[in-house]
Structures are given as structure tokens and as C-alpha cells.
Amino acid sequence: MIDSTFYRNNIFSIMPPHIAVNHNYQASTINVTSSSNEYRIRSMVRTDISTVYEIDQATWRNEAWPLENFFNSLDDPLWNCWILESTTTDNSILGYGFQYFSNGISHIANLCIHPHQRGHGLGGILLRHMINYGYNLGFSIVELEVKTSNINAYRLYAKHGFRIIQLLERYYSNTADAYRMRLIVNRID
Fold first, then answer.
1. Number of other residues whose CB lies within 10 A of the CB of residue 119
2. What SS3 class is residue 79?
3. At what angle do helices 122-136 and 151-159 cross, to 10 degrees?
4. Domain boundaries, the chain
5. Would you put residue 129 in left (φ > 0), alpha (ψ -120 to 50) or beta?
6. Residue 43 reports pLDDT greater than 90
7. Which three-class secondary structure string do you get for 97-149?
């Protein structure tokens, strides 16, 4: 449970001052067909893991998930593993997301776009899909953790209404801090 007094008085002191925040706590859907690209989000299958692992390695290097984490997540019935792929080229995997549900909360455990595909709004497409999927299952609270130094990811989450609820010191590899962020979905437009 969040201490609302702490939240109101202190949360903005740990938020980077140069990041704009969406204060309305609402998620919206978008059409994933643009004039030149079409995207599809589907459930991950075992044959996707090698490509997903390569994307994870290229993105996070020594902080990437171990290969077994991908198989374990895919095999766990409480987890949903998503693939974002292009339908206009060769159905190449552009990104992936891992989500699980626990204690009334939808948790986004991992969301990653291929390094060569970033900056085109794909992270938002995948994020909105996971928010909407959880909401349609009855989960109106979404949480995630993001490294404090990962400004691009932080901006994506803040743009979609996520707010910092906690600073987690040495969360990643006992050296890097993280923000725990939360979105309360009031409605989906």
C-alpha cells in the first residue's frame, strides 16, 4: 500500500525534473496499422526464444536475462509472453513483452524493442497491448520496475500515465537503482 502523504510530498523529488508526466492515469488503444507498416502482437512460442534472447542480449548485454528465464516464463501459466512482429516484411520480430498477474496486479516484467527498431512508437504499441490485456482480464493496476538511468523507457512509461511509487536502491545486480512505477487504469479509450 502506498503512503499517500509520502507520495504527494516526496515522489516528485526522486522523479527526473526534465520528464513530462501524464497525470490522468488512463491508457488508450491505438490502431497498429500505419500508412507503411502493419504490426501484429501474438503469443510467444518456443521457436521465438532464440530471437528474443538475441534482442535481449543486444539490449542489456551483461544484464540480460539468462536463457532459462525465457523458457521458464513461457512455460508458466501465470505469465503471458508477447511478440510484436511486422506483417509487411518477413514477419520479423521487432520486440517482446513479458507480463504476469499476481495479487490483483498486472506486472510488466520485461518489454524490449529491437535496438534497430526503436524510436518508431513500437514500445507504446506493445505497452498498450499489455495494459489492455490485463484490463480486459479485470486488472486495473499495472506495475513495473525501470532502471533509473533508462530515461527512454522511463519517458515511455510516464507518457502512458505510470507514476513512480517507490525508489528501489540497488535493484538491478545490486548496483543500479530502479523506480517502481504504477498505472491505475480508470478506463480505456
1. 9
2. strand
3. 50
4. 4-184
5. alpha
6. yes
7. EEEEEECCEEEEEEEEECHHHCCCCHHHHHHHHHHHHHHHCCCCEEEEEEECC
Task: At 31, list the grid cell.
Answer: 490502431
The label of the residue with cell 527526473 reads 16
User: How many beta carbons lie within 10 A of that of residue 131, not counting itself?
Assistant: 26
Smallest CA-to-CA distance from 84 within 42, 47, 53 is with 42
How far is Cα 114 from Cα 103, in angstroms, rounded to an integer? 31
Helix/strand/coil for 186: coil
Instruction: Say if CB 85 and CB 71 are below 8 A apart.
Output: no
C-alpha cell at 93: 520480430
Domain made up of 4-184: CATH architecture: 3-Layer(aba) Sandwich (3.40)
**Residue pLDDT, tens place only, 108-160:** 999 999 998 988 899 999 999 999 999 999 999 999 999 999 999 999 999 99
C-alpha–C-alpha distance, residues 81 and 110, integer Å: 9
Determine how β-strand 93-102 pairs with β-strand 39-43.
unpaired
Q: How confident is the model at residue 84 (pLDDT cuts 50, 70, 90)?
A: very high
Q: What is the pTM (predicted TM-score) of this model?
A: 0.78
